[in-house]
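Practice problem: Cytochrome bc1 complex cytochrome b subunit
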Amino acid sequence: MAKPTSVVETSPEVEAREPEKKSSFPSSGPLNWADERTGLAKIGRFGLRKIFPDHWSFLLGEIALYSFVVLLLTGVFLTIWFKPSMAEIEYDGSYQLLKGMPVSEAFASTLHISFDVRGGLLVRQIHHWAALLFVAAAFVHMLRVFFTGAFRKPREVNWLIGVGLMSMSLIAGFAGYSLPDDLLSGTGLRFVDGLIRSIPLIGTWAEFFVFGGQYPGDLVIPRLYMVHILLIPGLLLGLVAAHLALVVYYKHTQYPGPGRTENNVVGYPLFPVYMAKAGGFFFIVFGLLVLMGGLFQINPVWTYGPYDPAKVTAGSQPDWYMGWVEGAIRIMPNWESHWGSTTWSWAVFLPGVGLMGLLFGLLAAWPFIEAWLTGDKREHHLLDRPRNAPTRTAFGVAGITCYAMFWLSGGNDILATRFHLSLNAITIFMRVAIFVAPVIAFIITKRICLSLQRADRERALHGSEDGVIVRSPEGGYSEGHLPLSEDEQFLLTQHLQHTPLEASAETDGAGVAKKQKVSKFRARASRWFLGSEIPKPTSHELEEAAHHGDEPRRELPEGEDAERQLDGRRDDDRAPTH
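Answer key — structure tokens:
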């Protein structure tokens, strides 16, 4: 009979201990203590060895990020002295031309920062220039993402975050622009008041909610102040953090080239190479903003004076990123509808609120629209050359042209006075150009892209010119070609080409109705979007082209036959060149 297994009771003083976790830091101290509890070394090792591709266009997003950092730093400085109050006081500061005038506390504190705080005017102008640079860099960065197709799967969410960042930056810029309560910013605030009131049915109620009563009220500056320093910066910080986290998670996109595939990233590690370059670039951006703030005057509120609702500055213009909305309203015909006791002002609502909604709506929907047109559900980590997506590139240039026409329309009064033109003639011209110019830009851009595709195809098949012009015995001229390197040939032929979608049959072979996956409309739209692309060379065509130079040269006949052949062609000096 087997003996029962002996049971040894463990003394309460004896405990099983796990082997002590060794820290990655060689010496004891705060880093060692933190690593044992949080695993900082492992996280740092992963982050510091993250690979980033090296291309100048990726610096556009960094410019926006660094400008945002400068905005935060200078904004903290300005917050210390700015007073967000619309209470009326008598100005008693250093600027003698306004001494004794009734102004708001917000305007007086802005003058105090500009003239009485050491370095205040410099910091205030750096802040304004940084705001303009932030919006401009974000705008150009989004264009780079659009034209290279970096918004495709799996980065649709990051594209939507970018659209949100762009919209939030416009709101932050407008709120900060309105805080000094000067005559120019008050004119812009009156413009926004008109936009709010133009909203059908709820416009008046929305105006009373924003301004705390009838315009201008006495609460809008404090409310804009909280939006500018708390609400929007908080949202921007969250969106920027999410944006950068998704860049790390999905890995960085890269331009096509030798050794670069959809499954790797070719570049430099974050530490030490990229961190050193990024740190140096930050100080370059910061230094440039300091130079601009010190040398180029911007928003001199003392020349405009305090805001008075009964006045407007002559030739007033908003910052460039809001000028297109004003331009749309300036050239819009005076359309109104009167239904019952309500007035629907389409001349303000459609070009103002409606146009901004249309812009950001199209931007947000574009990744899904393109995926619907192409039927492409693959992941993309390699970027497109803009020429290899001609319709998308043409759409982008058409959108930029439309934006430019609206922006020019916002300065129609300046154009009329500077160039001695009729204001009405400029307005009528812009009403036509806003529809015609984008179409012309679309057609020209698409033809240029297709021409570049043909040039790439010819270069991949025939190589590059050797620069030596040879005249044949027949009198013709030709230039030899040199074969391309494998790297360049790969670059010219690596891109994917989508096949236009075909409409699915409504019934199967047995005549049973089935769900239609591709409608006829979608198939026609896909053919229009993809059908004009130039096919890239096939592997068989490339192999044939590679053997063209192996053919033996044709030798001239000798003796009298050669002389007779040359004599018969001496007059043919006008032979076409090749």
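Discussion: Strands lie at 51-52, 88-90, 102-104, 268-269, 336-339, 342-345, 464-471, 477-482. Students who identified this feature from the tokens alone can consider the problem solved.
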